[in-house]
Specification:
Length: 459
């Protein structure tokens, strides 16, 4: 482990600058497999960190990014350890990975994208600070698949920040915490001199599925927790809406692994659920939770197809649910109004996330006065909508960063977002980006679309 700078305190570990070859490439010893966060001294809180303001950078280092841990990417990347807080306001440390296109100079006019990945796991091997690094071994990680989305933003010349929004314990699905960590990650990025950003830098927000849920918490918490940030727009893809409905809908089905992962995570934070696990789960059920805790979501899902919670409980799930209603009420999204414009994109026939739950999230936002543009897709399902909606998401965020005027908020139901001609150029650019990422080529800027090309879906 190499630490470039300790801003406050001492970690008590040996810290050296990596040996670099001609051309700036690290020597072979510097690119060996990175330590998982729970073993990496970089993640240890420095003494006195709790006295610092939220978003204060405590430590930073440069890192190498690689596709699936194997193909080095042509980007400049750092990790920032900073002060944040947990669900109850207790100080903790968090990490964000901040990126620029390779060779990019600091630029005060450069916007920042706060991208929240679909970590959807308890294991720290799925945290972006580990999964995106060269040499990382992260079986089942969704975050590694999402690098293509980040690369598309970097090709536009944006700076990107990717916080470990689940925190050091992997608190997947917990209320509010992802917002605190992501907002403090933005604060840290704006203070990090090598990026050259300002306190009023324009910030866009994006995430899909579990990342859409985390992005929802970011924009919901921002008006109270970080009102000084210049958030100009957010795209929330399939952002969960009501976790209770998702939990019950997936139980016993093809994606029954997700409820198991969520229980394994939430029991760490919510005493009522911890009591249910200790009292009502069979020994086999507790072993199942431990298995879900240690694997990435893509690895867990095939193992738990068709599993029902009732098969691992001493009493029916229907009898247990009333004990958890307060927890589910806290997890429900949409009870705090975002202050920035929001685009929500949702498949109608989503096999993972109940579209009615997202309808409710949008309705609650609007009732509280938020400006929400809502696009519902008839033909896409959960996994296909992510790539199909990527050009639309990037274009919409680019318009917000450029300060373009929006029409009145609307809800539009379309056959497919991919059929909108305004985004066909973006499809070509996405394919080009995928090729460059796969081959490890420089992420040269994409050709900007003509100003007359305005989407008819969420203008």
């Amino acid at each position: 482990m190499t630490v470039d700078a300790d801003v406050i305190g001492r970690s008590g570990t040996s810290q050296r600058t990596p040996v670099r070859r001609a051309g700036g490439e690290p020597a072979a010893s510097a690119v060996s497999r990175p330590l998982p966060p729970n073993q990496d001294p970089f993640f240890h809180p420095p003494r006195g960190f709790a006295r610092q303001a939220p978003g204060t950078i405590l430590r930073h280092r440069s890192v190498e990014i690689a596709l699936f841990g194997l193909v080095p990417q042509q980007v400049t990347a750092w990790q920032l350890l900073y002060r944040s807080q947990d669900l109850h306001g207790r100080p903790e440390v968090a990490v964000t990975t901040v990126l620029l296109p390779a060779g990019a100079e600091p630029d005060a006019e450069r916007p920042l994208l706060a991208f929240q990945t679909a970590m959807d796991a308890v294991t720290d091997r799925c945290a972006p600070s580990y999964a995106l690094r060269r040499g990382a071994l992260a079986p089942g990680s969704i975050t590694q698949l999402e690098w293509l989305l980040v690369a598309g933003a970097l090709r536009r010349g944006w700076a990107v920040g990717i916080a470990d929004h689940e925190g050091p314990q992997g608190n997947f699905g917990v209320a509010r915490e992802p917002g605190y960590r992501s907002l403090d990650g933005v604060r840290a990025a704006l203070r990090f001199a090598p990026l050259g950003l300002r306190s009023d830098t324009r910030v866009a927000v994006w995430g899909y599925s579990g990342g859409g849920m985390a992005s929802s918490w970011l924009v919901e918490m921002a008006p109270e927790y970080a009102p000084e940030l210049n958030l100009v727009g957010a795209v929330l893809g399939a952002p969960v809406g009501d976790p209770r409905h998702v939990f019950l809908d997936l139980d016993g089905g093809l994606f029954a692994g997700f409820p198991a992962i969520v229980i394994a995570a939430l029991r760490q934070v919510y005493p009522a659920l911890a009591q249910v696990v200790d009292r009502d789960f069979t020994p086999e059920g507790r072993r199942l939770l431990e298995r879900a805790r240690g694997l990435g979501p893509i690895a867990v899902l095939p193992l738990l197809v068709g599993r029902r919670m009732d098969d691992y409980l001493r009493r029916p799930l229907a009898e247990i649910l009333p004990d958890l209603e307060a927890m589910f009420d806290e997890l429900r999204l949409g009870n705090h109004a975002p202050a920035c414009p929001v685009l929500v994109i949702q498949p109608i026939h989503d096999q993972v996330i109940d579209a009615a739950g997202v309808d409710g999230q949008v309705a609650r936002y609007r009732a509280a006065g938020a400006a929400v543009w809502y696009v519902r897709d008839r033909l896409s399902e959960h996994f296909s909508l992510l790539p199909l909606a990527t050009p639309m998401s990037l274009d919409w965020l680019a318009d917000r960063l450029a300060g373009k005027t929006l029409t009145e908020p609307s809800t539009k139901t379309v056959w497919s977002v991919a059929l909108d001609p305004a985004h066909w150029r973006g499809m070509v650019e996405m394919a080009t980006t995928a090729m460059r990422v796969t081959l490890g080529l420089p992420l040269r800027p994409a050709v900007a679309p003509a100003s007359s090309e305005v989407s008819g879906l969420a203008a």
